[in-house]
Design brief:
11 helices, alpha/beta, 34% helix, 292 residues, 10% strand, elongated, single chain
Length: 292
């Protein structure tokens, strides 16, 4: 390989353009002093020493840096809050009409679920003596945002189920949930939360006077059957064993048939069970043709 390094002495031949380019790049040029004969050095006058330029001191910061705060200790978790429970059938809501019941639910702060909600989800549909009352479990994220039950993919499937029965949302059907506020991260409702909201559902049934109740999902089935007076051992059975039966919910006007089925969200995860859900709907429709 040939040597392409330019001798330093050749650098003295740089023109102004080359020097400007090097200066622009931040390259400083330094060349050694040329050799001077000894006799010339003796005759040359002594050069005065030149002091090196003083280095400029760094400017002081405009503001002194703030001292870093010492890391604080993580606060202790709050003590668990006791959830007040309203016993079933205590009569606390028996004097409320429909508008007052809606206002009471929307203003409720009786349990911790109220602290994280966007909206209370009382229900939606035909509130003037509907034939059908569909009871779900609890609001999800979209229901919490919009204040209406069954508005996501599960709601779309429920609408198709209603359409297959000749029904439509808002016509002869009222849709609600056992829990009126969304549990955090869509977790299962806790027993104390179910008990807290049960009087709301009970009063809704009393005012709506539906001809039949369709409870979809395990928590909805257990809650409605508890209102119907079904013993704990029976209503605690798996949903698959509660299907295919007709329960009776006592009311001031007599009793209302109750049929339980799978929640539409479960049917989306297990589409093979849709045939069983359709059998449940047929069983429920058959009850409307029978005398009370």
């Amino acid at each position: 390989m040939s040597d392409t390094t330019t001798p330093l002495t050749q650098g003295l031949q740089l023109d102004e353009r080359q020097r400007a380019m090097l200066a622009e790049m931040g390259v400083r040029l330094w060349w050694p002093e040329p050799e001077v004969p000894a006799e010339v050095k003796a005759d040359a006058p002594a050069r005065p020493a030149v002091a090196a330029p003083a280095r400029a001191a760094a400017p002081a910061p405009a503001t002194a840096p703030l001292p870093r705060a010492a890391p604080s200790e993580r606060p202790a978790p709050p003590a668990p809050r006791t959830v007040p429970v309203v016993p079933l059938g205590d009569g606390a809501l028996t004097d409320l009409d429909w508008p007052a019941l809606q206002d009471h639910m929307k203003a409720c702060t009786a349990c911790p679920l109220s602290q994280g909600r966007c909206n209370v989800v009382p229900g939606v549909g035909d509130a003037q003596r509907p034939d059908w009352l569909v009871v779900g479990e609890a609001p999800g994220e979209q229901e919490d945002r919009q204040g209406e039950p069954f508005v996501g993919a599960a709601g779309q499937l429920l609408d198709k189920m209603l359409l297959a029965m000749g029904l439509a949302r808002g016509e002869r059907v009222y849709i609600t949930n056992v829990i009126k506020c969304r549990p955090p991260h869509n977790r299962n409702p806790e027993p104390a939360e179910v008990a807290q909201c049960a009087p709301f559902l009970q009063r809704q049934i009393e005012l709506l006077q539906p001809r039949i109740v369709l409870a979809v999902g395990r928590f909805a089935a257990q809650s409605v059957l508890a209102l119907a007076g079904v013993d704990e051992a029976t209503r605690g059975q798996p949903l698959g064993k509660l299907r295919g039966q007709v329960f009776r919910l006592p009311t001031a006007q007599g009793s209302v048939p109750v049929v339980v089925s799978y929640h539409p969200a479960y049917l989306l995860r297990s589409p093979a069970e849709k045939g069983k859900a359709w059998a449940d709907l047929c069983l429920a429709m058959a009850q409307l043709d029978r005398p009370a």
